[in-house]
């Protein structure tokens, strides 16, 4: 097992190197930089802007900029935001936990909704309720996240006014109090529910198919022939075997939440790293953009590693010894 884990970690090293090169190149080929907006600013001439570019290292050769950037990353220095005039690490620390809370809430609601629906559809497959659940799956699969989130915000935020339409907490509440944390949950519900309702598709379909496939196994037929109650067959045999692959794909669910949070945080004005990412692109704050892409890339690789480890525990046959 340890050999498998070490091998997967070693494979991640060249992946991170390639990712860093691609991220740096894409940031450089994008038009303009963080100082481009100063060109038309009254009182700031072009020579001053060029001096600032030289001081910040923007005019250095590309390979020198890349090596300096990698050196900073290896030391935990993600650079400085030209727009916010703050270290990028401070910006991430201020917003990271909001994204973590949102992702955790989406994951919790996803399984809370998907597991009962997947079990019901698998147990009563080809019935009316199964067709309704499959129909719901098709609709949510075909619905773009940003359109669904906008619709949820318009209906439940602006029209019915059941939920707040932006922010992560009321600024008038004192941080650390019970009311403050309850208000954070209140602000979290609408974006989390919007993301969870669409994220249930894969879990429902996979769990349904696993239950249907397990019901056809010989050991299930044997248990039925021996007179084992159907409820016990489902709880002790079918569900236990069907849940193992679902648990194995937890890491892939986490990686999907990272990309989904970018749209949700932007639409719901939720102050997380996804919103910061889009703002940094529009402001050409490339030090923040490259740092965020690297952080999310590392999180994606870790999520993939987690899934591979769980899969190897569930099914040792996939280990390459």
TrEMBL record:
The chain crosses the membrane at residues 9-27, 100-124, 136-158, 185-207, 243-268, 288-314. It is a multi-pass membrane protein. It comes from the Bacteria. The keyword Transmembrane helix applies. It is found in: Cell membrane. InterPro entries: BPD_transp_1_N, MetI-like, MetI-like_sf. Keywords: Cell membrane, Membrane, Transmembrane, Transmembrane helix, Transport. Pfam families: BPD_transp_1, BPD_transp_1_N. Residues 96-307 form the ABC transmembrane type-1 domain. Belongs to the binding-protein-dependent transport system permease family. This is Peptide ABC transporter permease.
């Amino acid at each position: 097992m340890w050999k498998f884990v070490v091998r997967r970690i070693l494979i991640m090293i060249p992946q991170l190197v390639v990712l860093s090169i691609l991220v740096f190149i894409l940031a450089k080929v994008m038009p303009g930089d963080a100082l481009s907006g100063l060109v038309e600013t009254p009182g700031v001439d072009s020579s001053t802007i060029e001096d600032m570019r030289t001081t910040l290292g923007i005019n250095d050769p590309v390979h020198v900029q890349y090596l300096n950037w990698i050196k900073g990353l290896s030391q935990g220095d993600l650079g400085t935001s030209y727009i916010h005039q703050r270290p990028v690490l401070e910006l991430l620390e201020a917003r990271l936990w909001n994204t973590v809370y949102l992702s955790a809430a989406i994951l919790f609601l996803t399984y809370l909704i998907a597991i009962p629906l997947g079990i019901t559809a698998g147990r009563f497959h080809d019935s009316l309720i199964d067709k309704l659940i499959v129909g719901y799956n098709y609709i949510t699969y075909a619905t773009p996240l940003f359109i669904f989130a906008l619709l949820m915000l318009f209906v439940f935020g602006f029209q019915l006014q059941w939920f707040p339409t932006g922010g992560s907490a009321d600024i008038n509440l004192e941080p650390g109090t019970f009311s403050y944390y309850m208000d954070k949950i209140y602000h979290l519900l609408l974006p989390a529910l919007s993301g969870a309702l669409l994220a249930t598709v894969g879990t429902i379909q996979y769990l349904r198919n696993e239950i249907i496939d397990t019901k056809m196994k010989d050991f299930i037929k044997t248990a039925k022939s021996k007179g084992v109650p159907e409820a016990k067959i489902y709880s002790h045999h079918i569900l236990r075997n069907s849940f193992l692959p679902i648990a194995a794909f937890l890491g892939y669910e986490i990686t999907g939440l990272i990309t989904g949070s970018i749209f949700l945080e932007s639409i719901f004005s939720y102050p997380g790293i996804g919103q910061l990412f889009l703002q940094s692109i529009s402001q050409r704050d490339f030090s923040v953009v490259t740092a965020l892409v690297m952080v999310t890339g590392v999180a994606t690789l870790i999520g993939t590693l987690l899934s591979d480890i769980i899969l190897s525990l569930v099914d040792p046959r996939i280990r390459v010894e």
